[in-house]
Design a protein that fits this description.
The protein is α+β, with helices and mostly antiparallel strands and about 130 residues long. The protein has a single domain, classed as Cytidine Deaminase, domain 2 (3-Layer(aba) Sandwich), CATH 3.40.140.10. The chain contains four helices and five strands. It has a five-stranded mixed sheet. The longest helix has 11 residues. It is globular, with a radius of gyration of 14 Å. The relative contact order is 0.18. The structure holds tetrahydrodeoxyuridine. Tetrahydrodeoxyuridine binds next to helix 2.
Length: about 130
């Protein structure tokens, strides 16, 4: 878990968030144990920005990964930075409900771990379309 948190911390420092100034880093471990990081990237046309979790998923897909085994998220400030609603659904596409998501402070201290099922109960996923 420490390697995952370190990757999220490093990714956070690459965030492009000149508008909100809210830097976020995310890192996920794929089915092969490989870690993929991502940061939030904002845009002058505000709604066009995207989240750190989404960037990490894009990095995983581009590297040939297929599923999320574990994830860490680090936001800014003292409040718990949980994945936003849209990201929960994006994570759901590639993760089982039992996958753990670690939410940490800026210094990498673990604040809380929740499963995807806890964050997104009764979710709709790929199986629904099978
Ligand atoms: N943000 C993330 O990247 N991940 C989260 O889990 C919550 C919010 C970003 C989006 C936006 O760039 C900034 O944080 C403020 O909402």
């Amino acid at each position: 878990m420490n390697d995952l948190i370190a990757a999220a911390k490093a990714a956070r420092l690459k965030a492009y968030a000149p508008y909100s100034k809210f830097l976020v880093g995310a890192a996920l471990r794929d089915e092969n144990g490989k870690i993929h990081g991502g940061c939030n990237i904002e845009n002058a046309a505000y709604p066009q920005g995207w989240c750190a979790e989404t960037s990490a998923i894009a990095a995983m897909i581009m590297a040939g990964g297929h599923s999320i085994a574990e994830m860490a998220v680090i936001g800014t400030g003292d409040l718990l930075c949980t994945p936003c609603g849209g990201c929960r659904q994006k994570i759901r596409e590639f993760a089982r409900g039992s996958v753990k998501i670690h939410m940490c402070g800026e210094d990498g201290t673990l604040k809380q771990t929740m499963t995807l099922d806890e964050l997104l109960p009764a979710s709709f996923g790929p199986e629904n379309l099978a």
